[in-house]
Amino acid sequence: MSALPPQPLSPLDGRYFGAVSELGDYLSEAGLNRARVEVEVEWLLALTDRSLFGTSPVSDADRAKLRALYEEFGADEIAWLKDKEAVTRHDVKAVEYLVRDRLDSLGLSALAELTHFACTSEDINSTAYALTVQRAVDRVWLPKLRTVTAALTELAVQHRDAAMLSRTHGQPATPTTMGKEIGVFAWRLERVIRQLDAGEYLAKFSGATGTWSAHVAAEPDVDWPELTRSFIESLGLGFNPVTTQIESHDWQVELYDRARHAGGILHNLATDIWTYISLGYFTQIPVAGATGSSTMPHKINPIRFENAEANLEIAAGLFATLASTLVTSRMQRDLTDSTTQRNIGVAFGHSLLALDNLQRGLTEISLAEDVLLADLDTNWEVLAEAIQTVVRAEIAAGRSQITDPYALLKDLTRGRRVGGPELADFVRGLDIGDAAKERLLALTPAAYAGLASRVVDSL
Fold first, then answer.
1. 246 and 134, same structural domain?
2. Which sequence ranges form a coiled-coil region, renumbered to this chain (predicted)?
């Protein structure tokens, strides 16, 4: 059997690339290396801005040329780094050599020894990862999550009055509205989004074991903790001053746990919508040219929600692995985090793919209100709750002598269907006040959704 031409191993880089490609700008190896170059260049500028070691601030023209090293980072730099790393067998060292090489070509070789000055690789890496993850989340992943949440809010408002039968434990229960039920998911996601917005993105920049030892040896009169804090904060990141060789990754653990939490809510949404489709509550809008089954022409399968469900499970597993692995580093440093962090993009990629499918899927369904009403009309027994609660109120008010209203309704309705006329006859024979009796006689399953419509206002 002949070998295939080189193929992407991951479906994220093949079949689904179009849905997740934006993440590659940040969470790919090239995106990471671009951020590393950015950190190296900005650190060099920070040192010269303070005229350390006999330097002077770089001119505006040269500053622009230096920043172009990462702003215009592209195919040439990617190829250069690949070749250099094949020799150095060290990715961050290859980045340092790239910056030194470009300094020579820019006529700035006098600054070469300030490249990677007093840095350990993890000073560069922790900062680069914080930048790339922050940008990927803020510019790509969170906007998509917000879009899905906004779509849910819109559906909740649209269907706020669409009464439907609840199913607690899968059994007929007190009616609600479809809008309120969808609104539950929007509310849950908004809460997690607020937590994500409040999350920190931290970096360290304190040398080989977090002590600024080399910095102090080179220049003992500089307040290095304050200088490095100022540098990290100038990049839009938080500073972690108490670390080993690595930044401890706790902010990442928090982020991935929250992303997994959001994914769990979305997974619940996907399975519920799938179930509502199977009950006929939602009809699926045919997509022109699409095929649901290779042998059954009539089928429209809920593939958007099934795809989302599967990808959310994959993402959850990866997020959980990232969080559980990154929380630990043996003594001052081990390399387990290096390999683990290279899968950050894979985790967010599967999550983003799920969000894309949910966004599309929510536009391809239509509420079948006639089915909802028919379902309600065959389950009048759900009014048993209302009847026994009204009877209790009447007893408390001294307008009834009934001794056990719950048992009375249980005998009438448990495990059996009760129609509207039968319930009406039952209510007419109850020992309760006339006003209460009239309220119950006017009640139908479709009208027994309480304040469900008002709950949607909470969104």
1. yes
2. none
